[in-house]
Amino acid sequence: MKWLGETKVTWLGHATVLIQTGKGTNILIDPFIEQNPKYPTDFQLPDQIHYCLLTHGHGDHTADAVTVAARHGATVVAIYELAAYMQAKGASQTIGMNLGGSVRLDDVTATMVEAKHSAGIQDEQGTHYVGVAAGYVLSVADGPVLYHAGDTAVFSDMKLIADLYHPQLAMLPIGGHFTMGPSEAAMAAKLLSPKAILPLHFGTFPPLKGTPEELAKLIGPEVFVVRVEPGRALTSGN
Ligand SMILES: [Zn+2]
Q1: How far is ligand 1, taken at its centre, from the CA of residue 193, in Å?
Q2: Given 3.40.630.30, 3.60.15.10, 1.20.1270.360, 3.90.230.10, which CATH number is that of 2-234?
Q3: Model pTM greater than 0.85?
Q4: What mean pLDDT do residues 199-211 have?
């Protein structure tokens, strides 16, 4: 994927993705590590993770956020209420933002975009309101535009995301049950017209039945559906 330039994208199972820019900015999205059955156990996270981005409050997207913030010095970026919750739980640096807004994360501009999903967070005290679910568009300076959809159904405003930001890589949930499945993701591909899709949120647990093969069959040859083992980086050379 030549268009990735110096940027490396590593899927770590479920919706966890590590993005490393050529200038050295490390971004981890939705850290689900300890309890993630698909996390590549031999994978070594970089010592420093500059930013940890959260799409919504569910445990399979936030479970290790506070730990990553403490161990790797990461600033936690999330929708305003979720950022405040993470701060209360011990993340010392946070950036709260909201839908439609952008923040500059060194050489990456992160724009928070819509997702269609629920978003409470559960702890010993019950379920808390932590804003709404979101996705991120990451525009790397002199590099690619990456879209992590978070957990979502397909929605027609994905066309707006395409028109505004032109993502080359769309990271989309395809497992079904809690998010869209392959047929909806195929429609998302039409709306987004990326160069490639990195399928997320499938196969982690038995109900998440959608597969990249089904998606690839539905989409046909015009969009490349990435099939990669967790822990193996996507680079300009593959
Ligand atoms: Zn999820």
Answers
A1: 24
A2: 3.60.15.10
A3: yes
A4: 97
